[in-house]
Give the backbone structure.
Amino acid sequence: MVRRHWLLLFALPLLLAAGVQEEAPETPDEDQQALERTPDDPRLTNPGQLTVGTGDPVYPPWMLHDDPASGEGFENAMIYALAEELGFSEEQVVWERGLTFDQTIAPGPKPFDFAIRQISVTDERSRIVDFSMVYFQPDKVVVALPDSPVVDATSFAELREANWGATIGTTDLDYLENILEISGVAVFDDQAGTFQALQGGQIDATVVALPTALFATDVQVPEAEITAILPPDPNDAGHGLLFEQGNPIVEWINEGLAAIIERGVIEDLIEEYLIDPAEIPEISS
């Protein structure tokens, strides 16, 4: 009788293990995974908020009133639409404006989840940072004063006769040097400096995206004009959001971006902020 009780006691744990499976407590990794793709995603720079890098200052029509938080302008309106798609409130969108353009596109750690400041996706940049899908491809145009030698230019050869300037680190500078094959381009630290040089007669012309040119010729250098649309740059895929290389949230952000593109949000913002009603001559070669 004693032996039978001993056998039952020995077998009981085995029977319980076979018949009853207790739930294991969630591990920290499982807790983190449950928060992914939510505003509290631990992979965010600051969980609980969407930290977005941009310029200081910012310019219309990309952002109005030098105030990203206003939501007025193509880029910041797009970001608030994207944030809503991802589950963030307006108050959870925080703007990080501490880096220059050159610092933004440089390799290394970033103080933001991603940046938006008319950043073109190129193969060279893609080797040191990550990008979202392209959301906009603007035309590149020539901006010049009325007495500039490029005003009536119809070919690249005629464009090369002028003195050019562009902003450091931009695809505008790359375009002048590599597509138009212009040497001796004057380089400026920021866009404001480039337009000041144009206004002061230090340069004859510059190349910028059409929306930027519309604002420049309306406000910054009203005596200047858009003289020509240039062929697309084969090395410039268009504008994308920029991430620190290896950032694991790129796929999540791309899903949100694809959703607002599919709904026509970006097309509506292009119509509202970036379309030029005037006809501009084109130079093809």
About this structure: The first helix runs from residue 2 to 19. The chain has a mean pLDDT of 90. The domain at 140-229 is CATH 3.40.190.10 (D-Maltodextrin-Binding Protein; domain 2). The longest strand covers residues 140-144.
